[in-house]
Amino acid sequence: MNEMTKVDAGHSVEIRHLDLQFGAVEVLKDLNLDIHEGEFLVLLGSSGCGKSTLLNCIAGLLEVTAGQIIIKGKNVTWAEPSERGIGMVFQSYALYPQMTVKGNLSFGLKNARVPKAEIEKRVARAAEILQIEPLLDRKPGALSGGQRQRVAIGRALVRDVDVFLFDEPLSNLDAKLRAELRVELKRLHNQLENTMIYVTHDQVEAMTLADRIAIMRGGKIMQLGSPDEIYNRPQNRYVADFIGSPSMNFIDGRLEGGVFTSGELRLPMEGYEYAAPQVSDGPATIGIRPEHVVTGELAASAPVQTEVLVELVEPMGSDTLVYTELAGERFRIRMDGQAVVHAGDRLPIGLVPAKASMFDKSSEVRL
């Protein structure tokens, strides 16, 4: 099965029933994923969730236990990495220190015996797109971290492939540089319109870059959707908790007759969009994002009003985070950066059930 078999093309990349085991340990479990042509898909999750492993399987750097990997309509499950039509950018720059930037960009093309004129053309185009033309005669030691990562991206770019794979390419950079290169990557995708699969544990990168996000946990995809869907309609408590900084507030209670109660807190769930037509009464958990809590004069116009005691205030410039307690649970509120609030204050707040997320307490699946 070394030859690549032609399969009816529909998506740029298709993963079918993929399993990967290291001895008795299951790393990926019956994983299915379709990636659209020209899509920027982000694999997001905490360390050890299987996101980099999946990327390495797509690249051909790991041999799968079962399942199929199809790229551009070809079954490449057992194909060599060089036969898959992919370009990969790693977390480490992995540049040749003795070569110039131009040498690093052209090295793989020379090995592939691409004609010299074509090499010059591709290197010039990549340098122009990545704005590294003045750096072509420098060696990696004379470059900053951001410049080196641009060269690493350029080395994948000159291969002129349909699918680019990025394995946490910005994690070695400082916060300011990460933000700058994030914008550059978005521009690069808009310009090239190639399929890009990007691994990160940084939810800000995922939310800003992705057309769709696949949130992974324990070798499985917990939810696949647009950043808006992931943020506003998380399918389970894990996803709800993982996305957002600070993370979502959770309160355990009970749903009965369309009303959520927990202690003295009573939330009629009017306007809430249930995930299923019929939802049974029973133990439930409600999730409320800190930024969806209404404060100040607007609190009085919210569907549900209450008052909390401010325990701690964290000024963050553009935002102010307030720590308090609601229905016996720790509760965070995001306020405007200009808000005047102090520990010990009684703060009137408003809750909007339509913006909340509600989960079955035992299965943790969205209600």
UniProtKB/TrEMBL annotation:
InterPro entries, sorted: AAA+_ATPase, ABC_transporter-like_ATP-bd, ABC_transporter-like_CS, ABC_transpr_MalK-like, ABC_transpr_MalK/UgpC-like, Mo/tungstate-bd_C_term_dom, NA-bd_OB-fold, OB_MalK-like
GO molecular function ontology, one term from the record: ATP hydrolysis activity
Gene3D superfamilies per UniProt: 2.40.50.100, Nucleic acid-binding proteins, P-loop containing nucleotide triphosphate hydrolases
Positions of the ABC transporter domain: 13-243
Keyword set, alphabetical order: ATP-binding, Nucleotide-binding, Transport
PROSITE patterns, per database record: ABC_TRANSPORTER_1, ABC_TRANSPORTER_2
Gene Ontology CC annotation, any one: ATP-binding cassette (ABC) transporter complex, substrate-binding subunit-containing
Entry's Gene Ontology BP terms: carbohydrate transport
PANTHER family cross-referenced by the UniProt entry: ABC TRANSPORTER ATP-BINDING PROTEIN, MALTODEXTRIN IMPORT ATP-BINDING PROTEIN MSMX
Family, per entry: Belongs to the ABC transporter superfamily.
NCBIfam families: PRK11650.1
Protein name: ATP-binding component of ABC transporter (Sugar)
